[in-house]
Amino acid sequence: MPVPRSPRRLMGVAVVAAVAVLVPAVARATDAAQPPPPAASAPADAGVEPWVWPVAPFRLTRPYVAPAHAYGPGHRGIDLAPAGSPDVQAPAAGVVAFSGSVAGRGIVTIDHGGGLVTTLEPVVSELEPGTTVERGETVGVTDLGGHADAGTVHFGVRLDGEYINPMLLLGGVPRAVLLPCC
């Protein structure tokens, strides 16, 4: 005699089947979407220096928020409030691809090769496109304007045209310390 199939039992079987199919597919898609290992984790003998923060010391005022899709809302970079000098440094060696004003705010874009491009704004700079810059070299000073809070620098990174979290190249997310609440 066949076992009676209740709607609840069928729903449970459907959920288990869906999870069995979707979890491996999501894991494969997530693995494929991950950027290659950051330059910061390259072996020292590879000739690649770790990236440096474009302003230091600083306070992180707005983190990276990945958009759900290419045109979705998000924050495609991090915002840093300088706690000292207004100087802005190149996070890694590269070539200035753009230095000028866009929509009333100063922008410096550096091509680091290997598909990595950084954008710093609002930054006033006298560098010309084509200028070679070294890691840690001053590329300009913090200005006002742009979409970041006044006095902060927006630091965005693209890998092969897609925005990635800049902190991946700077050693990841800073270590958090949990304190008791009471």
How would you characterize the overall build of this protein?
With 182 residues, this protein is of the alpha+beta class. Helix content is 15%, strand content 31%. It has one helix and eleven strands. β4 (94-102) and β5 form a beta hairpin. The model is unreliable at 6-47 (pLDDT under 50).
For the structure shown, list the relevant keywords.
eight-stranded antiparallel beta sheet; 182 residues; Glucose Permease (Domain IIA); single chain; 2 domains
Concise synopsis of the structure shown:
With 182 residues, the chain is an alpha+beta fold. The chain is built from one helix and eleven strands.
Radius of gyration: 22 Å
How far is the N terminus from the C terminus? 62 Å
**Subunit organisation of the chains:** single chain
- Order of secondary-structure elements: HEEEEEEEEEEE
| CATH architecture annotation of the largest domain | Distorted Sandwich
State the shape.
globular
Enter the CATH topology name of the largest domain.
Glucose Permease (Domain IIA)
Structural class: alpha+beta
Poorly predicted sequence stretches spanning 5 or more consecutive residues: 6-47
Strand content: 25-35%
The helix tally amounts to 1
Keywords: Hydrolase, Signal
Protein name: Murein DD-endopeptidase MepM/ murein hydrolase activator NlpD
GO molecular function: metalloendopeptidase activity
